[in-house]
Amino acid sequence: MLHDYFEKYTSIRKALSEIPAAFFIPENIREVKEFYNLDTLKDRLKDTDNCSADFKSRDLHGPDTGRWYRSSFIVCKRNSKNEPIEVICVARDVDSEVREHEEHKMMLERFATELSDEVAKQTVHIQEIQRRIVSSLGDMIGSRDGNTGGHVKRTSEVMKILVDEIIRRNKAGTGNPKFLKISAKKGEDIIRTAPMHDLGKIFIDTKILCKPGKLDDDEYRIMKTHSEHSGEIVNLILRDVEEEAFVNTAFNVARYHHERWDGNGYPEGKSGGKEGEGIPIEARIMSVADVYDALVSKRCYKEPMSFEQAYKIMIDGMGKQFDPDLEEIFVACRKDLEQYYSENSE
After folding, report:
1. Is residue 3 over pLDDT 50?
2. 125 CB contacts (<8 Å, ≥6 apart)?
């Protein structure tokens, strides 16, 4: 077939230029034309005696008769400048070889896809186990301090309301520039970490957790250690099985949610650089959620405050206890927060 083709031509250049359309499928045309381009052949053979490529032929003998061929230019002789002066063109049927290669490639791709799917399933499974562990610990802590785990669920919902408002503003182009780094992914991480903020209370004596009156100095000192313990537990549960960014977010929420904007919080406070912008943004949002829930919920030592009273205290705390730039977020969420607590009061 090739012999009959070349027999018609007196110009090798013309013969090679028409090979692509005569023998190969349209999907190959651009690559085949580049391969058979004699103007670039000298450069391609400058440092090698053989350049080859695999192309699929047309169905020249009926349907499904297209086969894979390995086209090659082989240098037989070079001049004193090491330029090729005698080159032969070869086309070798490698259909079975290429098909086997393609089948192996497809098998590897399929295996990679299946492996990726399995990893994804296992990751979801691990995350679900983590969520249940955290939820169970939260319920256990809530039961110990008389709060029946409600605080964990409620603060998670408050965090979601606040974070969703920040992301909504960011998407609309009306967000505060300092909050623009809270992407949808970062926001999701912040919301997921909310249930972990009080895990350290598992180490606090029940007598202190459930004391109906004000804690004395020693009791308060012990109570304050729960934020440090919370950070330690987060690292214990999540480190090496979660993304570093998520672990860091969870650690910041757990350890620093009692830090204050004015530097008078704990466990580090002003002396540890945890004041103002030195407090991680996720911990600042958690602080708002944590305090608001404490104000409007019933605790062993107090009755719930009215929405109006709680709102006034929260606004008064902006710039002192809380990041002042979170005020407009809190105000915008007031209606949703009050509706949530009205529908989920204990």
Report:
1. yes
2. none
Helix/strand/coil for 299? strand
- CB atoms near residue 133 (< 10 Å): 13
pLDDT over 90 (residue 17) = no
Pair 231, 248: CB distance under 8 Å: no
* DSSP structural state of residue 305: P
* Range 163-180 burial, b when 16+ CB lie within 10 A, else e: bebbbebbeeeebeeebe
3-class SS string, 28-90: HHHHHHHHCCHHHHHHHCCCCCEEEEEEEECCECECCCCCEEEEEEEEEEECCCCCEEEEEEE
Answer whether residue 129 shows pLDDT above 70: no
Residue recorded with tokens 């083709």: 5
Alpha-carbon distances, residue 177 vs 109, 140, 163, 185 (angstroms): 43, 39, 15, 17
The phi, psi pair for 58, rounded to 5°, reads -70, 170
Q: What is the mean pLDDT of residues 233-243?
A: 79
Beta strands in 139-254 (DSSP E): none
CB atoms within 10 A of CB 266: 19
CA distance 82 to 297: 88
Query: HSE on the CB side for 243, CA within 13 Å?
Result: 10
- Name residues whose C-beta falls within 8 Å of residue 83's C-beta, 6 or more positions apart in sequence: 42, 46
Length of the chain: 346
DSSP state of 92: E
What digits encode the pLDDT tens for the residues 247-294? 899 999 999 999 999 999 999 999 999 999 999 999 999 999 999 999
